[in-house]
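Quick note —
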Amino acid sequence: MKYKYIIFEKKLCMKNTTLLFFSFFCFFIFFSCGDENLKSYPDLEFDNHKGLLPSEYIQSKIDKNTGNKIIITTSMQYDNLNRLIRVKSSISDSITDTQIITYNESNGKVYTVTTESTNGTYLYTYEYTNPGIILEHRSFKTNAPSGYNEIEPYTRTLTVSGNKLIKIDDPKESKISLCKYDQNGNLIQLDTNQYNYDILKGIMSNVKTPNWLFAAFEGNFPFTYNLVNNIIVDYKGITYKYEYDKKLHPEYPIKIIMNNREEIFIKYTVAK
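Predicted structure written out below.
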């Protein structure tokens, strides 16, 4: 932006000069703050060689019921080991969903996941038995809300290999779901659901929460299919494109475009 400097004649009073200076100062501050709020990348000691973690997804859309514009914000919080510990979603500043992950302090393994929404509060507790076998105990943490029946606690059996989920045995659904991966380690099939990826660095690739947990939740944590590379088509047929500002950072996109029309802006924090 170019500014014109004006030399005032002596006959102009000091009062007008002071007022003009004050107005210019406010104008400058207003636009500076606006630009700063739009930045995707961390401000402090920014280095495009450092790994990043997504800290916020911001989506603007029109409510189909009211026709009003709404802002959907999903914020993500990590511990000092770059493990995801909290996800909070809100619509126009009203919190709608919260997901909390806790870890065993002695061995670092996932201990519980708590999900809170208008449908109630669910608790998932993980028990490690034989090597490669994890029991996922599911239950309501609080009383079921009106309109939702209290569910009987039940347990799914997860078979894992290293960081990957291999199989889900769900007795409630009387169903066994198998997972398949490509040569890079992307989940390309869960049961009959299939996924396609690009070959670029995944948005969530620096997150140290085990991949099997995200696979077991089948995408209920945001963009957790982007753990190795970035998803471009999911099992619903939704397409994803990614926009980069390569002058600022060559590896982490600033925007996701879904189905060529819905835009999601991404903010990052520096990985530990």
